Amino acid sequence: MKNSSIGERLKYQRKIKGYSQEELAHRTNVTVRTIQRIEKEEVSPHLNTIKLLAVALEIEVDELVPLENPKEETIKKKWLLLMHATPLTGIFLPLLNVLIPLFLWIHKREDNPMYDKHGIKVINFQMTVLILAILSFVGLLTIEKWGFIIFISVVPICIGIIIFNIIYVVQKNKCYYPFSIPFLRLKKNKTLGLLLMVGLSIFCSCSNPKQETIERLDGSLISKDSITKKIDQLMADTQIYGMAISIFDDNQPVYQKVFGYKDYPNKTVLTDSTNIYGASFSKAVFGVLTMKMVEDGVIDLDTPLESYLPKKIYEYEPQTRWHDDFSSLKEDSLYHKITARMCLDHTTGFKNYRWFEEDNKLRVHHTPGTKYGYSGEGFIYLQVVLEKLTGKGLEQLAQENIFEPLGMENSAYEWKTRFDQDFALGHNEKGESLKKDKDNEPRGGGTLETTAKDYTKFLTAVLNQKLISKESYDEIFSPHIRIRSEKQFGDKANTITDKYDSIRLGYGLGWGYFETPHGKAVFKEGHGSGFVHHSVLFPESGKGIMIMTNFERGNSIFKELLEVTLKDVYTPWEWENYIPYGK
């Protein structure tokens, strides 16, 4: 198959898997007609289409795309193997573990970005190994018992990591070197002498190895200073005067910074411990809380919620001002089909809130589970059932299962008097501060009060799969409903489009979902009372971002922020209505 066309390759791989054209179309959401045209060589497929087909067939992209020069891949593999394997010579002659890959990197880094990236990672690891070897020798002389154990363990561990990467690069063209100090970075404007001086200074002084650059989705690096300057520029251009941002890499926050004011007219400064209204960030927390209830056996995702209660939901006397009043459902013939899964993936058939109905009465507009329609009411319905089943209010459940375990000391689903000491005001389009709403009763879909510091803790826990099991996170971060609407809200929310088919836009449990060449992504927004937020996580790469603003036009810079900080060009910003300020 070496010199065959993409059509022949696709047909060959499809038949090996035993798929018909219709089955492959179903697995990829690439139309049958498109697959037929590719196999007949009538069309040159887009790269995203090829990637979707490769994932469905469980093969690498290059098994579908013919190489113009088949020998080129072999050469690249040989050079990568040399870079990763030659450090083993350091076992016999010290320093060769650094000098040989350094020579290879200098020789090949201009030929292919992959050589540059792999070479830097190898050199950084091997220089770190030299430091560890010296420190372990010092430990041997100064620390009884443990010094000897540390000394004899360094070399076998390092050899194991090298062998692992030799195998990894052969199979995946990827590498992973933990604990490396970033002596070298992907910056072409630095001379080799300067790089070595930086490495030697770190080597000799054991200075702080904290990274000053952040690796983005595509492997490129951006300095933290550049991010800060970009945010300053965007805020000045758009007159957005309050923002908190956290950027994640390797499942940890690597950049956390707060800008501007919590009350712009009075010029009072925003901090990472300032209370910020979370709006629909509430739903992401509630999604994790619900899965904890599923794990505890309180509820099942696919059992109709009505069946858990001894009475019909509309027969209960309301205990709140409005949100647990379901009396209007007495005449509804569809609500009894609603499950927890439907509440969390926005397929209940409820409108966002009952006040969007002309008569302010809650009703189901289509068969539950069949169509996406963003609905805070669905979260309320699920919340009320959980409260009746557990005998505990939402606030107590969240504190016991989420906030207290994560040390989120300044988070709650209701206003706390201690928040009076330091809270942010929302601002309208004119930059005028809005009155703070402090009398909300706890609602899982939208009353979260939190801080930039606390919500960063929550997202960090999600990336590291804490609080609930991996299986539960897999359930949350799966597409339970595909989305094909042109917009999330407004008139075009009912307009069907194929614009987002390439990213398989959908909804998980409390989180939005889409797919990228770098793996799946999950997102959650928040908007209300002058606050506009966005977060997106890439669980497979451990990367992500949290943006919180207290200005109504905050979302006008989200698209550019995502592209600059993460190289995220996949988020469906038009669907989200994140219209850039320049347009």
From TrEMBL:
Signal peptide: none annotated. Residues 10-64 form the HTH cro/C1-type domain. SMART domains: HTH_XRE. GO terms for molecular function: hydrolase activity. The chain crosses the membrane at residues 79-104, 125-143, 149-170. Residues 430-442 have a biased composition (Basic and acidic residues). Gene3D superfamilies: DD-peptidase/beta-lactamase superfamily (3.40.710.10), lambda repressor-like DNA-binding domains (1.10.260.40). It is found in: Membrane. Residues 430-449 are annotated as: Disordered. Keywords: Hydrolase, Membrane, Transmembrane, Transmembrane helix. It is a multi-pass membrane protein. CDD domains: HTH_XRE. PANTHER family: BETA-LACTAMASE-RELATED, PTHR43283:SF18. This is Serine hydrolase. It comes from Flagellimonas halotolerans.
